[in-house]
Amino acid sequence: MNTVLKSGYVKARKNYHTDASCYFDFARYPREGGYRVSEFKDLGMTDEEIQAILEADKRKWRIEIGEVHYSQTGVYDGDLYSYRAPKLVHQICVKYDLYTED
């Protein structure tokens, strides 16, 4: 069971890696590592949304100092976790229901 302790948008005080990339694996080429943009278009994503995903990938899914991003801290099956995602990437995940419940 997942219990969210806190969540919201914050400004990064240091560089972070984000695990948000795993929510876009459905569109990743298995071996080449790039994305099939057509998969995003099939979901109805806008060019701006697709560009945000490609930009995050280009930056190796890093959140830079000073960047406003989504942050969530919680407990999952008794373990404390923290999750971070670039602001627009998080909004895309919510809009297209990419976050999993498990």
SSE topology sketch:
Elements: E1 2-11, E2 16-17, H1 37-43, H2 47-58, E3 62-63, E4 68-76, E5 79-86, H3 87-95
Antiparallel strand pairs: 1-4, 2-3, 4-5
Write up this protein.
This protein is of the alpha+beta class and 102 residues long. The chain is 27% helix and 30% strand. The strands form two sheets. A three-stranded antiparallel sheet has the order 1-4-5. Strands 2-3 form a two-stranded antiparallel ribbon.
Indicate the low-confidence ranges by residue numbers. Answer: none
Shape: globular
Mean pLDDT: 90
Strand order of the largest sheet: 1-4-5
**Which structural class fits the helix and strand makeup?**
alpha+beta
Largest sheet entry: 3 strands, antiparallel
| Separation of the first and last Cα atoms | 8 Å
Number of domains: 1
> What Rg do the Cα atoms give?
14 Å
Q: What is the number of beta strands?
A: 5
| Tally of contiguous helical segments | 3
Helix percentage: 25-40%
What are the salient characteristics of this protein?
about 100 residues; alpha+beta; two-stranded antiparallel sheet; 3 helices; about 25% helix
Brief rundown of the structure:
Helices cover 27% and strands 30% of the residues. It has 102 residues and is an alpha+beta fold. The protein has one domain (2-95).
